[in-house]
Design a protein that fits this description.
heterodimer; A: mainly alpha; 0% strand; B: alpha/beta; D-Maltodextrin-Binding Protein, domain 2; twelve-stranded mixed β-sheet; two-stranded antiparallel ribbon; Sperm_putr-bd (chain B); periplasm (chain B); polyamine binding (chain B); transport (chain B)
Chain lengths: 281, 364
Amino acid sequence: MSVSGSNSRALPWALVTPALAWTLLFFVLPFIAMGLSSLTAHEGGGFTLANYSQFFTDPSYWRAMVNSLEVTATVTVISILLAYPFAWILAEQVPERWQRLALMLAVLPFWTSYVVRSYSWLLVLAQNGVVNRALSGIGLIAEPLQLANTRFATVTGFVHFFVMLLTLTIFANLKQLSPSYRKAAADLGAGPVRTFLHVVLPLTLPGIMVGAFLTFVLCIGDYITPQILGGNNELVMPQLVMMQIGRRGDFPLASALSIILMAVVTIAYLACARWLKIERA
Amino acid sequence: MTVNAQNPLSNPLSALKSCLAAACAAAPLLLTAGGAQAADLNALIWCDHSDPALLQPFEEANNVKVNVKEFEGTGAGLAIVDQSQPGDWDVMVIDSIDVSRGVEKGLFEPLPEDKLPFADLFPEVKMDKSTVVDGKRYGITEKFGYNTIGFNKTKVDPVDMQSLASLTGDKYKGKIAIYDYYLPVIGMAALAIGKKTADLTEADLPALKTELLKMKANAKLVGEVTASQTALATGEVDILVGGGEWVTAGLAKENPALDFSIPKEGAVLWSQSLAMFKDSKNKDMALKFIQYILSPEGQARLATSSCYWGMPANSKAALTDEQKKILRFDEQPGFLARAQTYPAPNADLDKKMQDMWTEMLQAQ
């Protein structure tokens, strides 16, 4: 009895131990090290809060956070607006036998290297790139537009990637939705628009929120896309973090900035989790 | 007192941080352990040293494998060393002005001057002020060039490129890219306002900031090496502030219209050095490697590396006439006479300069 009881208690721990060890080794310990580093003076060592105060007192530093939040919010909203109809068409309008192929085509951008994809966008949006040539060719513009090396280019590169991610999460949610909900709404006299707004949309919110949160996290922490497409005409947080490391090797300040960035992501998570009531599980 | 301040054991926070950092570093080190053989040479390098055309002759001649790890920026390079075990690395490529930083950390071994071709080096690039500490030489310049004005001569008037004032005038507004490295471009801003790069102080920062903001207002982008090179090569911009032979020479065959000037105000001289680690387990081979890189053959290969071209520090480099023409080898005495050294600020001024650069990048 006692041996069996002990085994039954030990088994779950045995099963989760590898995951816990992995998290401890590759997340908790580095995170603590980063936290301690952020409280250390770059010159001479010793405890300091200067790395944090630098962020809150230097306008060019917190401007990086504002830029990050603006870019991330724009990308998330545009991606949702594009991905939802796309996922709906895939789930509702495309015959089931073609859905797999359509999904595969939808995720094709994931198959290319992130860096290559960003540089490709740079060529598309460049002064003599495809877009400017096309617009010039049909006589819409006399002078090339500055599309590359702008926030517009950064947002475009991000949206291209995250629309696919959101499409997948929303599509999965739509497919799980039982047709009986819509039939019941129709029986009760609701038209297609009312059914969508009051039944389908609320029931697919978890899919939207999961995708939106992933978009938020991946976008706000991304260095490559703004670095390649943004032309450094404004800095976002990951670029500011990298800048501290390059020549000066100021890991304490880079750590403090990273922790602040992580705090913002945590707030976003708590907001999403609360809204979706994930904690009820 | 200074020693104590830097001793992790004197500070519990630093001690805990060091232990955690070591623990975090342990896993990747375990994964990589055993990858290198005792006879291997382990080199921390910039991308120009990873060209097989440079490494292969040395490896074959000495029956050794050169394991390279690329890094960008002295801070990142020194961080790699911090996270490694003593003896993991044999040689390092480093900004000449930063050799003393490695010496302060106790990383480098003095180099035997009598076994290296110092007499053949261009005198102006020996950089004794940075590479010699307490009478001992810890670094030898292997390659140099200029942070100046790179341009497309079919798109701009080359006469305009003889003055830094062109960078802040209206004529080329929106046709300019700025190389994203604060020290050389701040050096160029200093030249533009008539200051010597070696004499910059905190009092000069307001005037430098004004100049940088004027440059930014004219610029389409501020890009790192690849981005700024691509912008100039594809015609996105016609001028690169901070560009030089390191941008234009490698592209000369594909795009002969790219050129660089040394304006009347001067240019900023960049130089990279090779240093040997004090804890190297393979010092003989490390010295052989440095000797090879500084030899006429090694210098020619390094100067024309597929990653980026630059002037060889050794004036006897075995370059072809065409390569010399592309690098404007024969004009070097005149260029060097007008070039000024990289700004070499102390830690405090360095931080202030980087913050000023951040402000410039964020300016709309």
